[in-house]
Give the backbone structure.
Amino acid sequence: AQSVTQPDIHITVSEGASLELRCNYSYGATPYLFWYVQSPGQGLQLLLKYFSGDTLVQGIKGFEAEFKRSQSSFNLRKPSVHWSDAAEYFCAVDSGGYQKVTFGTGTKLQVIP
Amino acid sequence: EAQVTQNPRYLITVTGKKLTVTCSQNMNHEYMSWYRQDPGLGLRQIYYSMNVEVTDKGDVPEGYKVSRKEKRNFPLILESPSPNQTSLYFCASSLLAGVNEQYFGPGTRLTVT
């Protein structure tokens, strides 16, 4: 069965600092991978996705993520964090069209001045 | 405006009183899904639907029912709610399963006493 691990429950960074959120997945083949962001009291919004091709994908709001098959990872990065990036971030995997989507437990990002 | 709507947004009910949470999308999406979000557990898929009259269980289907009689609607039914179903519920839709991103509704906060 597929699974997603986000090892960091909570991360605090200073505004302007770089950010990396970790995501590891378990799935036999190449999965479809997603990062979503959830602002307080809101639904989820897609940041970026990967399903094939270039392993470095660009998303909205200046985020990017790199798919590393050898490490079964899909880490999210941003070079300079803004206070408005404070939110909860979820990594998700879709098992290649079999409709079953598994989310990680989320990483809550706090941004301090 | 393309969107997923859920009603009600907030609901407090008592154990055993049947309830329905409605979900509707106006994007002609084929795939729809229900999730529950609990602290520390992330989002867990309850049921999903690939198209009209096609539904299947997710990871946590016990105590829930769904139906998909029309493409745009995907109601979640709790026949006999229990306190352990107190949660934040999200409906989502996507054009197709797999590579397509999911669009999320605003969420329904359910409390069962």
